[in-house]
C-alpha cells in the first residue's frame, strides 16, 4: 500500500495561524524548471523539489486555547516534530528539507518546536494501466469511487515523495514508513491508503 500523509485534525474548532516573520508568499522552489508533470508555480511549496529558505518563517502564532500540539500539524505547510523527522531521515537521510519553526500562543508563550517539512522527491509513481481515473496531462481525481493505483517499480527505493502528475500537494509515503511512524507513536497523522502493484 501507498499512503497520502496529512494532518488529522481532532481539534474542536478550526483555529488560525499567523507567521510572525518571513513572507510565505515569497517562498520559491530552488529549481522552478518545467517538466512533464504539474506546473511548478512560484509559490508552490509541495512540488517535490527543495525550496529557498530566505522567506520561511521561524515563528508561527497559533490562535485558540493552549493545547497539546501533535507531531504532525498543519499551519501553512505540514509541520512535523523531531520524532517524525528522525523516522523519515532513518529511511531517506539528507533527501528532504526540515526547517525549524517555533510555535507560540497569542500571548507570546512557547507552544512547541516543529519543522517545516518539504518532501524533495518528485516522481511519476501512478500505475497508468490500472488506475481508472482520467489522465489529462495530470491525474483528474474527481472525487468519484475510481481507483488510484501506485506502481512499486516506479516508486523504487523511495519512502516519501510528491507524485508529479497529481495536483493535490500531499506527500505520499511507503507502507514501511507508515508502520515506523505508527511504531514511534506519532500523533496527528492521517494516512489515506491506496493500492500498489508491481
Describe the structure in brief.
With 198 residues, this protein is mainly beta.
The share of residues in extended strands comes to 25-35%
Structural class: mainly beta
Beta strand count: 15
Give the spatial strand order of the biggest sheet.
2-3-6-7-5-4
Q: What's the shape?
A: globular
**Count of runs of 4 or more consecutive helical residues:** 3
Average pLDDT metric: 92
Sheet with the most strands, sense and barrel status: 6 strands, mixed
Low-confidence stretches: none
Helix percentage range = 10-25%
* SSE order: EEEEEHEEEEEEHEEHEE
Can you characterise this structure?
This protein has 198 residues and is mainly beta. The chain has 2 domains: 9-118, no CATH class; 122-197, no CATH class. It has 3 helices and 15 strands. It has helices at 82-91, 152-155, 175-183, and strands at residues 2-7, 17-19, 59-62, 72-75, 77-80, 97-105, 110-118, 122-123, 134-135, 139-140, 150-151, 160-163, 172-174, 189-194, 196-197. The strands form 4 sheets. The chain has a 6-stranded mixed beta sheet. A hairpin with a 4-residue loop joins strand 6 (97-105) and strand 7. The longest helix has 10 residues, at 82-91. The radius of gyration is 17 Å and the shape is globular. The termini are close together.
Label this structure with key terms:
15 strands, mainly beta, 198 residues, 6-stranded mixed sheet, 5-stranded mixed sheet, 12% helix
Amino acid at each position: 500500500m501507498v499512503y497520502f500523509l496529512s494532518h488529522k485534525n481532532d481539534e474542536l474548532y478550526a483555529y488560525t495561524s499567523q507567521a510572525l516573520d518571513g513572507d510565505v508568499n515569497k517562498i520559491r522552489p530552488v529549481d522552478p524548471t518545467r517538466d512533464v508533470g504539474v506546473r511548478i508555480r512560484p509559490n508552490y511549496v509541495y512540488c517535490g523539489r527543495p525550496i529557498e529558505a530566505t522567506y520561511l518563517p521561524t515563528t508561527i502564532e497559533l490562535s485558540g486555547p493552549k493545547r497539546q500540539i501533535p507531531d504532525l500539524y498543519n499551519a501553512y505547510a505540514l509541520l512535523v516534530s523531531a520524532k517524525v523527522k528522525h523516522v523519515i531521515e532513518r529511511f531517506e537521510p539528507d533527501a528532504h528539507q526540515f526547517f525549524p519553526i517555533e510555535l507560540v500562543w497569542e500571548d507570546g508563550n512557547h507552544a512547541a518546536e516543529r519543522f517545516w517539512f518539504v518532501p524533495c522527491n518528485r516522481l511519476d509513481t501512478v500505475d497508468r494501466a490500472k488506475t481508472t481515473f482520467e489522465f489529462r496531462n495530470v491525474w483528474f481525481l474527481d472525487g468519484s469511487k475510481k481507483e488510484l493505483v501506485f506502481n512499486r517499480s516506479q516508486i523504487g527505493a523511495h519512502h516519501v515523495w510528491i507524485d508529479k502528475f497529481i495536483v493535490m500537494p500531499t506527500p505520499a509515503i511507503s507502507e514501511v514508513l507508515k508502520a515506523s511512524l505508527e511504531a514511534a507513536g506519532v500523533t496527528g497523522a492521517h494516512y489515506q491508503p491506496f493500492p500498489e502493484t508491481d
